[in-house]
Design brief:
CATH superfamily of the largest domain: Histidine kinase-like ATPase, C-terminal domain
Distance between the termini: 70 Å
Number of helices: 13
Helix content: 40-55%
Length: 590
């Protein structure tokens, strides 16, 4: 009954609060979408025009840089300046050398189609494809411009087809031609022609693109490329209206209706040229399809309103019954019953919640059992620790008695040995303290080395390199001696000879880290043995490895004290010994 009431209310609320506003939002949203798309199309078209003009400007700048480079070439000045005084062989040699140098432009700048110099000096021989006599120049129309304070003539042709090369391949490509005089001491000595393929100068006219995106380029009122070149042309009736609107303005947009369709064109003039770029946005604006979207959205809203009642009624009644089952189970847990089960199946969120609830109960019961077990183990451990401590105190007292007897008999070596052993035992009795100072660990290790030297007939030297500031820092107890013991057991004792163990303790104030290094000079480890040892320390291999038990214990304590990022560093090689580094963090307060 509750679920039926809830379903009817939910349908009513959805119809009133969701359906009606959704219809309004659909109308408002589609209008906003239309305006946004219109703005986006216009913005994209403007950016496209800017990019194309930027490309044209870059090409023109490239022409200008080449012109400056060539006209400022000292070798060319010398060739023209001394052509009347040099012998013919020298002129031919200079012409060939200069021609080879200019031909390198084609290699370094592949977009340059050709460079030609038309000379007025008959003494300079023609050398294809760079040097030609002036009568071969095909166009003599020039535009007067001011260049570096002087009047110069230059001309641009944007659909240039050279006949200079005859039927050769490089003569059959339409190109952009730039012709400018070459002056020497304010005297014209020839003309420079720089060529670039039209497809490189206006790539946006030729590259493959969607049919809706069209760009046209006019020089004055004439298109720079014709349909014969594979370039789409703007119909004359449209171009006349666009060119008339663009007259006198550097950039703008014109819209008008023709044959029931909205026509939209953007234009922008290329700086320092007579080029006009026109972008057609007509087809893009007429393909928005907002009206069809509104119709489809309206039909969808009506259909969804008709089906909502039956769908929500069925889904709500089923979901609420399962939710009530989980709620009742939670109330049972609240009363203390942890044996509740929620038998829900499925893959939806409610089934997932039921499974999570069941898993949580199982986990709680496991944790309770673990806590009970841990409490029992802690109690047993504390009892054993007390027993061990009592036994250790008894052993320490016995050692003191033996030491006193040895002193009475003047047995100084025995007294020294027992004193060191008692000192080490007294340090072990305080192991319930988890941390100790570096100085204490160092004293314990020195006692261990002294006992080794008393026991053996060879000498083990502990060579220390220790910073004074490190002695007062605290580290986990029994961190240093196991590493030194490993060095003795596996590097020194098998040889049975005098040996040295290097111990280095230094601080890094920047990283606030204490670095303990123990280096032996024994046989070292083979690469495979070193890999097995590292895996064993990392816990990836449960099999015992020589020297790995103590090292693994140290790694476990580093992880327990400071986290998994603090790890031992072991380096070893055959006949090169073994180096173990232990990083320990410390704080500035320490």
């Amino acid at each position: 009954m509750k679920s039926a009431v809830f379903s009817r209310r939910l349908v009513l609320v959805y119809t009133v609060i969701v359906t009606v506003p959704l219809a309004m939002l659909t109308l408002v949203g589609t209008e906003h979408l239309r305006r946004g798309e219109y703005h986006r199309i216009i913005t994209d078209a403007e950016n496209d025009l800017k990019d194309n003009i930027s490309h044209i400007s870059n090409c023109i700048d490239l022409f200008m840089r080449i012109e400056i480079t060539i006209t400022g070439n000292r070798k060319m000045d010398d060739l023209f300046l001394f052509s009347n005084t040099s012998n013919k062989v020298s002129i031919v040699f200079q012409t060939r050398e200069l021609s080879d140098e200019l031909e390198r432009f084609f290699v370094s700048m592949p977009q340059i189609y050709g460079i030609r110099i038309f000379t007025d000096d008959e003494m300079i021989p023609e050398r294809w494809p760079i040097f030609f006599h002036k009568e071969r120049l095909e166009n003599n129309a020039y535009e007067q411009v001011l260049f570096m304070g002087e009047q110069k003539t230059r001309t641009w042709q944007y659909d240039y087809l050279s006949e200079l090369m005859g039927t050769l391949e490089m003569g059959r490509n339409r190109s952009v031609s730039y012709i400018t005089p070459i002056l020497l001491h304010k005297r014209q000595i020839g003309r420079l022609q720089i060529l670039m393929r039209v497809t490189d100068f206006f790539p946006f006219l030729y590259r493959e693109r969607d049919a809706v995106q069209r760009t046209f380029v006019f020089q004055g009122t004439t298109p720079v490329a014709s349909p014969e070149d594979g370039v789409e042309a703007l119909p004359p009736r449209l171009s006349s209206r666009v060119l008339a609107a663009a007259a006198g303005a550097a950039a703008g947009r014109v819209s008008f209706r023709e044959n029931g369709r909205e026509q939209c064109f953007l234009w922008r003039k290329a700086p320092n040229t007579d080029l006009l770029l026109v972008r057609d946005c007509t087809q893009e604006l007429n393909e928005l399809g907002i009206g069809a979207f509104r119709v489809i959205a309206g039909i969808g809203i009506l259909l969804s309103t008709a089906l909502l009642f039956w769908i929500i009624r069925f889904a709500t009644s089923r979901m609420m019954s399962r939710l009530y089952l989980i709620i009742n189970s939670m109330n049972e847990v609240h009363k203390g019953n942890l044996d509740v089960m929620v038998p829900l199946e499925g893959n939806d969120e409610i089934s997932g919640m039921a499974k999570a609830f069941t898993n949580m109960l199982a986990r709680i019961k496991c944790l309770i059992q673990e806590i009970k077990t841990e409490e029992r183990l802690v109690t047993e451990t504390e009892i054993k620790a007390m027993q061990n401590q009592i036994n250790a105190h008894f052993l320490y007292n016995v050692l003191e008695t033996i030491r006193m007897q040895a002193e009475l008999r003047d047995e100084k070596p025995i007294v020294q040995s027992i004193t060191l052993l008692g000192k080490m035992l007294r340090y072990c009795l305080t192991l319930r303290k988890t941390r100790g100072k570096v100085l204490e660990e160092l004293e314990y290790t020195r006692s261990y080395i002294t006992l080794l030297n008393i026991r053996n007939d060879y000498v083990v030297a502990l060579r220390e390199h220790i910073e004074e500031t490190a002695l007062g820092l605290e580290i986990p107890r029994m961190l240093l001696q196991p590493i030194v013991e490993n060095a003795f057991l596996y590097a020194i004792e098998p040889e049975g000879e005098d040996a040295v163990i290097d111990l280095r303790i230094e601080t890094d104030p920047v990283k606030e880290m204490l670095l303990i290094s123990v280096q032996d000079y024994g046989r070292g480890l083979e690469p495979e043995a070193l890999k097995r040892l590292i895996k064993h320390i990392a816990g990836e291999d449960e099999k015992d490895t020589p020297g790995g038990i103590g090292l693994k214990n140290i790694q476990l304590r580093l992880t327990a004290f400071y986290g998994p990022s603090w790890k031992l560093d072991i380096k070893s090689a055959p006949e090169a010994g073994t180096l173990v580094r232990i990083p320990v963090p410390y704080t500035k307060e320490q």
